[in-house]
Design a protein that fits this description.
11 strands
């Protein structure tokens, strides 16, 4: 059974950076597409970025393009989300999710496995 654990969240000032990690155990990530999602209270979970399992193709929500970068290190069984130029509206709980698939998407219903989330707060 695949298990995911996020880390790297915290409090950062606007314009700052954070790198989130999604560490997997119980299975290797090589064959899983991975997505990063975020959610604020009262709103639906939003797809932020994802990376495919085969050719590492990436997708980004328009709101984070040019600021966030997703990457994977299969040797470490970990996926990362580098977040730069953070804005207050990036404040949310960030989740990573996985699905046994070649391609990735931004619909939460496509994913079978979820981490517990890590809080990101962007505030001065």
């Amino acid at each position: 059974q695949l298990q995911l654990v996020e880390s790297g969240g915290g409090l950062v000032q606007p314009g700052g950076s954070l790198r989130l990690s999604c560490a997997a155990s119980g299975s290797i990530l090589d064959y899983y597409a991975i997505g990063w999602f975020r959610q604020v209270p009262g709103k639906e979970r939003e797809g932020v970025s994802c990376i495919s399992s085969t050719d590492d193709r990436t997708k980004y929500a328009d709101s984070v393009k040019g600021r966030f970068t997703i990457s994977r290190d299969n040797a470490k069984n970990t996926v990362y989300l580098q977040m730069n130029s953070l804005k207050p509206e990036d404040t949310a709980i960030y989740y990573c999710a996985a699905v046994l698939s070649w391609v990735c998407g931004h619909e939460s219903r496509e994913y079978n496995y979820w981490g517990q989330g890590t809080q990101v707060t962007v505030s001065s």
